[in-house]
Amino acid sequence: MKILNGLHTFIADDPELASLAAEHGGELIDVRRPPADLVVSSNEACNTACFRVHTVGHDCGVGKMLTALELTAALRERGHTAEFLATGQTGIMISGAGIPIDAVVSDFIAGAAEQLVLENRDKDFVLIEGQGSLVHPLYSGVTLGLLHGCAPQAMVMGFDPTRTTIRHSKQEMPPLKKVIELYESMAKVLSPSRVVAVAANTSSLDEAAAQKLLAALRDNLGLPAADVVRFGCEPIVDAVLEERRRLSEGSSQGG
């Protein structure tokens, strides 16, 4: 029997549990245990040929992992090689690989994200699972290190319309447009990137209200918006492909 543990406390280090596992032929797997050989970033992710898409969010728990998984599947269906790069324990359990970014020593967060990209540089697309939010008072440090390490060429913004305060805090939720501007500004420090679409979680709304929200997001932000579970992710996939085409043409003209 295998026991998967997603906590920050490592059960494989517990002598009693480890002894019982050995006695009964079990295996204790601490999913949140980071690799021991991580290094600081060398800013090499931006030099890879794979197109790097980072799912970000205005808060934690808004669907960044799910969006990345759905986009990966949709890109594969269109004939591209695409890989989901897990950065959290649940994503690692789903995909079977990845690095638990929130368990990594802060100096090595960007390097860990970079390592995931470099290991999959042969793919057409890599979809890097985001964590937390740049405006989150608890988790923004993890978010920024991940953003800089994976050096995305495109970002997809996860959004929950019901959030009025940032989860696990009393801080008021900033306007979505301001959050988008912040991500683009912070990405530009190392590697310019744009938010190309919004992935909204409309599960709390009826269908009419959900469609109205998506239409308002498109009008107010000038970006494609979709609920990838409820209505599919095709508009977001189209936006990602268009951004790759735009950047490719710009690079060709610049050369």
Walk me through the topology.
Layout: E1 2-5, H1 15-23, E2 27-30, E3 51-57, H2 64-77, E4 82-85, H3 89-95, H4 109-119, E5 125-129, H5 140-150, E6 154-159, H6 176-187, E7 194-200, H7 207-221, E8 225-226, H8 234-254
Parallel strand pairs: 1-2, 3-5, 3-6, 4-5, 6-7, 7-8
Task: Offer a quick outline of the entry.
With 255 residues, the protein is an alpha/beta fold.
Mean pLDDT: 97
CATH class descriptor of the largest domain: Alpha Beta
Q: Main β-sheet, in a few words?
A: 6 strands, parallel
Total individual domains: 2
Helix and strand sequence:
EHEEHEHHEHEHEHEH
Beta-sheet strand percentage? Answer: 15-25%
Give the CATH superfamily of the largest domain.
P-loop containing nucleotide triphosphate hydrolases
Low-confidence runs (pLDDT<50, min 5 residues)?
A: none
CATH topology of the largest domain: Rossmann fold
Helix content: 25-40%
Give the termini distance in whole angstroms: 56 Å
**Mind telling me which CATH architecture of the largest domain this is?**
3-Layer(aba) Sandwich
Instruction: Describe the global form.
Output: globular
Oligomer: single chain
**Could you give the count of β-strands?**
8
| Structural category | alpha/beta
Our count of helices gives 8
In angstroms, what is the radius of gyration?
A: 19 Å
Strand order of the largest sheet: 4-5-3-6-7-8
